[in-house]
Amino acid sequence: MPRTREELERLERQNLAPYAQFSADTRGRKYPEEPPDWRTHYQRDRDRVIHSRAFRRLEYKTQVFLNGTGDHLRTRLTHTMEVAAIARNIARALKLNEDLAETIALAHDLGHSPFGHKGEMVLDKLMKDHGGFEHNRQSLRVVEELEQKYPGFAGLNLTWEVREGLAKHETSYDHPGHRTGFEAKSASLEAQVANLSDEVTYYSHDLDDGLDSGLLSGLSIHASGPPTMFAANPSRSCDTVRSGASCIWNCGLISTKTFTTIRWFTSRTSARCASWSSSLNFTSKTRPKSARSRGNASRRSVCTEPCAITSPA
């Protein structure tokens, strides 16, 4: 017999941590609906996001490189899929609600503009007389108003917890303002996991794409010095990025060359953020011994283990 929603909710109570968000405790939806028979509320939300038009449009939205400039370069859609994978792994390791974390991750860029953050800046200027443009607010607008799939209501009618995660999606690039109806100071832990997963993912795969495209090299990264994102708290930032990079390397989402570059970069930056040694010239011909000896063969094609990510001090 298939598992019913009630049985799935009981399993959540048995297996998740007390601080997790239980689907049975959801604050509900804007428009009342009959609960699903064979899925939890968050599983229904996830399916609605994946089947939305806005999700399919992510394929043609820029991550860093324009769509079509390379078969192996990320788009906003593949970025979103990687964020969702990392979010599930972290949530599983912390005994949080994987379905909620994954749903927020899948929906976090639904309102993103074409042409990346530069496109968002242009749209914001063009829309300044109408309140401006900010893609997190637009993501919320997409799921609440713009999607038209159901006869009884506008939007996807997602649960309050998913919409809160979108309203409070905050990274070094994203600084959402106050949104009526989401007054809590902090979002759920699952939403915070989705935020962290977004940062870990784009820090790693943007570098991976830069190296693969030839736009960046180990030497150019070495010469540029530590970026400003590490200046405020280099140790914390490096611990977060290094742990996340280890996770997605194990998943097979970035190359060994990129992973080794991240490990080397963060270890150097964490030790002395303001000073760079010229003794190490990292190129494809002079890679650290660990990268040469380990190689790509030992990478898992499918990530089967929870990521061992610990909270930085």
Reported for the largest beta sheet, the result is:
none
Order of helices and strands: HHHHHHHHHHHHH
Percent strand:
under 5%
CATH top level label of the largest domain? Mainly Alpha
CATH superfamily of the largest domain: Hypothetical protein af1432
Question: What is the gyration radius calculated from CA atoms?
Answer: 20 Å
Which oligomeric state applies?
A: single chain
- The pLDDT mean sits at 74
Query: What is the 3D shape?
Result: globular
Helix/strand/pairing class, anyone?
A: mainly alpha
Distance between the termini: 46 Å
Indicate how many domains the architecture comprises: 2
> Which architecture name of the largest domain does CATH use?
Orthogonal Bundle
What's the number of extended β-strand segments?
0
Uncertain runs = 228-234, 272-313
Instruction: Provide a count of the helices.
Output: 13
Q: Per CATH, what is the topology of the largest domain?
A: Hypothetical protein af1432
Helix proportion: 40-55%
Describe what this molecule looks like in 3D:
This protein is an all-alpha fold and 313 residues long. It folds into 2 domains: 5-189, Orthogonal Bundle (Hypothetical protein af1432), CATH 1.10.3210.10; 217-294, no CATH class. It is built from 13 helices and no strands. Helix 8 crosses helix 9 and helix 9 crosses helix 11 (234-250). The chain starts with a helix and ends in a 19-residue tail after the last helix.
